[in-house]
Specification:
Length: 213
């Protein structure tokens, strides 16, 4: 996610306190996440491209179990079994097949949406912020390998009492930001068999485009 005069020392002490507070809360969230098991959540997302002054909104449902996930956002259905990712585009009946690890390196892994802070980030406590009429704690994440990521910051907005992530904002390097708002969150969800595999038989005539090396 370099920072020695009296001013500099004051800044350093303050930054250390933020990091400690952020770490304590995120550790609590990580501990809570161990009890989640399978997850079913609904959310809305809004993409804002500040360069071209373009906005797009979507809503969807996500199922998560370990490193597996299934994500339906209307225009696309994205499924991963932790090894392979299938991205199905209903409008053209095409399905793109990719390696999960390669795709995860290029962006934010949906399977880690509720534990993203555990992976190589610096943290900064930003204090209380009001989001949709609710007071939430904002914690910023800054990737340690910043040059390798398409984003420079992830803003987390957390309900400290409920220990739930309510909003995540991914700040892109090219001027595109994506905001995810969690509407419903159900741990220990009952997920139908086959949710984390793409079955071509369910999509007659589908064109599979294999991008794997």
């Amino acid at each position: 996610m370099k920072f020695l005069t009296a001013f500099g020392l004051t800044f350093f002490v303050g930054a250390s306190a933020w990091a400690q507070d952020a770490t304590v809360l995120l550790d609590k969230l990580s501990e809570e996440a161990k009890s989640y098991g399978s997850i079913e959540a609904t959310y809305t997302s809004k993409m804002e491209d500040r360069v071209s002054d373009f906005e797009a909104a979507q809503s969807g449902t996500i199922y998560v179990e370990g490193d597996k996930y299934s994500l339906d956002i209307g225009d696309y259905i994205i499924i991963s079994d932790g090894v392979t990712i299938w991205t199905y585009e209903p409008a053209v009946n095409d399905c793109y097949v990719d390696d999960a690890d390669v795709m995860a390196e290029e962006g934010m892994d949906p399977a880690k949406l509720f534990t993203i802070w555990e992976d190589d980030f610096k943290t900064e406590w930003k204090g209380q912020k009001e989001v949709n009429g609710t007071s939430l704690v904002q914690i910023n994440l800054y990737p340690l390998q910043a040059d390798e990521k398409p984003f420079h910051t992830i803003q987390l907005f957390i309900d400290e009492d409920a220990l739930e992530l309510k909003r995540a904002v991914v700040k892109g390097r090219e001027g595109t930001d994506v905001t995810y708002d969690v509407l419903t969150f159900k741990p220990q969800a009952k997920i139908p068999a086959g949710t984390f595999r793409f079955d071509p038989a369910k999509f007659p005539g589908v064109n599979l485009v294999d991008n794997r090396i």
